[in-house]
Amino acid sequence: MQHPKVVVIGAGSLFFGRQAIWQMTKSEHLNGGTLTLVDTEPAHLARMTALAKKAVEHSKVKLAIESSTNRRDVLADADFVVLSFADQSVKYRGIDCRIALKYGIRMCSGDTIGPGGIMRTLREFPVILECCKDIEELCPNAWVINYINPTAANGVGLRIFAPKLKSFALCDGLHMPHVKKYYAMRAGIIEKIEDFNDQIDRDFDMQVAGANHFTWLVKAQYKGQDVTERIAETVRLRGQKEVEGGDVGAKALHNDRITYALFKAFGVLPMCTAHTKEYVRFWQGLGKLEEKIPALSIWETGDRYLRHFDMWNEVDGYNYGVKTMDEFYAAHKPDHATDIIEAIVGNTGKPFYVNTTNNGAVSNMPDDCFMELLCDVSANAIMPRRIDPMPVGVRGLCQQVLDTHELTARAAATGDRDMLYHAFCIDPLSNSLADSRAMIEDFLQAQKPVLPDYWFKS
Questions:
Q1: Cβ density class 349-377: b for 16+ within 10 Å, e for less
Q2: Which tens digit of pLDDT belongs to each residue from 61-112?
Q3: 5-170+307-330 has which CATH code?
Q4: What is the rounded CA–CA span in Å between residue 143 and residue 26?
Q5: Which residues contact 430 (CB under 8 A, 6 or more apart)?
Q6: Which H or E run contains 156?
Q7: Domain boundaries, the chain
Q8: Is the pLDDT of residue 458 over 80?
């Protein structure tokens, strides 16, 4: 695989497209191959394709750039297919959050768990399966990398409904080695990122496991000494300085204080608090006594539209010469998917956090459960490394999350309303069976334009 072909379906993704271009032109293992950009929105595709061509010209590499609005025209001979699309995501996440709030469920993100996560799976997973049918026909040996939230629900669904394909799922929250360097700082092992080196990497045993967006620091030892409490104390002190408001987004509010509160409640530190706080009921405003940490703020639809507008302006700035390509390379960095692709193609031996089947890595979780674990990657397999057992308590919560994801994926693929009801009831944010039944009808009617017809047949 000297000249890999990487097909990005959903290349207009502002949270992936630019980073993929950065890495594909920068990496000596990838920049002699082909980057194929696919998007059903012609204007977005044209802007991202122009950026890719400018990056190639600026970098003076041999990377071939292809683009198409029809994936079938370009999938042949692909080595990797990255799925990164979402249909009107901002609009429908906003609808998800409003309807959920009507029934007393507060979502600060709404893209992975809770009613929002379930409905996003119903919107995206059927399209993922359509892509997989084309991949099975045109490039059956390609690695399929799911980058679409809920990444675990979609990843579980791929294992069930597209078992012949080689696939795994990703989220950028545990991108290595950055996350380990960050926690080495929190543990007081290093003062700044630049102090991290290979010896510290070997001496710092950091183990993370869980469902995507619901991962936990299972072990943190430096030279055999447990440094979990040191990390927790750093978090506690940071929490004392957190702002109460301003223009900070809902996902960013109170995260250090919530991290420490969950540590005291469960005895283990969450690794992705911006999302994890949405997986538990503690900040849903349901308690009788006032909490020191307020109920979750609701995901801000309008602000996300403005953020996307600014990001497209940035892309146009590079394309029209308002910003230089040197600025582009300074502003961005490798993304998780293309980093893993580089490691596979170059056989670099670098490990990465990947959502895949447990396969015995965590002894007290089922072998077939779909977990986010540190893995060795190769052209033939994604192999999770064995780690300590999941702590009692969060182990059960993780299994509930994964059961919700599986039920959701099965419902999304089949249009089974009973299965959908089961998913709503098992979901950790469910607080009323009657509400769940009513919510389903509200959601389906509100999202009829972007859902398969089988949801509306009697």
A1: eebbbbbbbbbebbeebeeebbbbbbbeb
A2: 999 999 999 999 999 999 999 999 988 989 999 999 999 999 999 999 999 9
A3: 3.90.1820.10
A4: 21
A5: 424, 436
A6: helix 151-161
A7: 5-170+307-330
A8: no
